[in-house]
Amino acid sequence: xxxxxxxxxxxxxxxxMQISAMWNHQIDVNLIYSILKDIQGKIDQTIELLSIFETxxxxxxxxxxYKNKKKEFIERRCCNHQINLFCIFLAxxxxxxxxxxxxxxxxxxxxxxxxxxxxYE
Length: 121
Prior knowledge:
mainly alpha
């Protein structure tokens, strides 16, 4: 994994890495970062939201919902599948009034993601 260095990402990187370690690095770091940024660094709320999301994600219908909309997300340049799934969760649970696509665009395209996977080819 490579961390993109840009001043605007610096604010939540340390918290992102701490939360990732708490979850044994099983949750996408860009998802953690996006949540932290969206709720202004509130670690307890981030952890609580991740817990609720992880429980929601275990239900088979929820993964199917994303698979049905996956192409639409990709066409809008929202290519992080965990963030896209999280955006469906937010809209379904009414944590946001925007559509899942609008939320994903805000997280990925407008705000950007600081972590990229290293290409091992």
